[in-house]
């Protein structure tokens, strides 16, 4: 059975157990971090810091590209293999799914990434964990973008932006959602709209003291300006 199919099966089993425990009044399992990286914005960057083989950079298309594709693939395979160890730890399983989906996308394994993100959303909803739902919906939107399913990806990004603007619980993720929504528009050659999102994300990052992400924003703005200029000639 393929890895993603095993993951989905595990999520189904965990979901049934979780529901059964909730009915019986048992508290949900405690979260277990895996690795010691929070599920939050810039997930890929934090994972690359925790596991050097997962390092990536933005290419001219504003896509995360592995620094060493072979090493990246091996590291992703190792992380995917560990998912099987979390069958009896639903919180750990959720963390694993949430961290692995973006990495599968960066590796170009888009079907696996989509199924993994969808499984994470389903499990997060069972846990009634809105931040995990939000984070994994962002991961799913990015997969849809890479697949060229822009009608769906743009709708997802718009919903996430609206949610981050309207809810204090997600306000700290607005800069990240705006940036990735900008790359979604960039892929559609909607450069003026993309530039607005990149500039707003940059302002939020600067005001929030997120200096490590400012160069990424600046690079996106430069690339968008270049593409926009070429289109005007």
Provide a short characterization of the protein structure.
The chain is an all-alpha fold. The chain has helices spanning 3-23, 43-50, 69-82, 90-106, 110-127, 130-146, 150-166, 174-187, 191-207, 214-232; strands spanning 56-58, 64-66.
Strand content: under 5%
Nearest-integer average pLDDT: 85
Which strand order does the major sheet show? 1-2
Which residue ranges are poorly predicted, with pLDDT under 50 across at least 5 consecutive positions? 18-42
Walkthrough of the structure:
It is built from ten helices and two strands, in the order H-H-E-E-H-H-H-H-H-H-H-H. The protein is mainly alpha-helical and 233 residues long. It has two domains: 1-146; 148-233, no CATH class. Strands 1-2 form a two-stranded antiparallel sheet. Helix 9 runs antiparallel to helix 10 (214-232). The longest helix has 21 residues, at 3-23. Mean pLDDT is 85; it is low at 18-42.
Give the key terms:
10 helices; two-stranded antiparallel ribbon; 2 domains; 233 residues
């Amino acid at each position: 059975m393929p890895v993603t199919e095993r993951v989905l099966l595990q999520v189904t089993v965990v979901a049934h157990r979780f529901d059964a425990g909730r009915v019986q009044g048992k508290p949900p399992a405690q979260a277990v971090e895996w690795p010691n990286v929070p599920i939050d914005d810039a997930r890929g960057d934090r994972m690359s810091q925790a596991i050097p083989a997962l390092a990536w950079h933005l290419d001219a298309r504003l896509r995360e590209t592995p620094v060493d594709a072979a090493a990246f693939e091996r590291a992703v395979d190792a992380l995917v293999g560990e998912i099987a160890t979390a069958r009896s730890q639903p919180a750990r399983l959720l963390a694993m799914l949430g961290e692995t989906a973006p990495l599968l996308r960066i590796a170009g394994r888009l079907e696996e990434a989509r199924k993994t993100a969808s499984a994470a959303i389903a499990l997060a909803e069972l846990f009634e964990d809105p931040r995990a739902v939000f984070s994994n919906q962002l991961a799913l939107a990015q997969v849809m973008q890479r697949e060229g399913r822009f009608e769906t990806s743009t709708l997802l990004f718009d919903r996430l932006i609206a949610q981050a603007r309207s809810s204090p619980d997600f306000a700290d993720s607005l800069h990240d959602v705006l940036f990735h929504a900008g790359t979604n528009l960039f892929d559609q050659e909607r450069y003026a709209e993309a530039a607005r999102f990149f500039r707003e994300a940059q302002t939020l990052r600067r005001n929030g003291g997120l200096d490590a992400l400012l160069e990424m924003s600046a690079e996106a703005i430069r690339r968008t300006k270049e593409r926009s200029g070429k289109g005007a000639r």
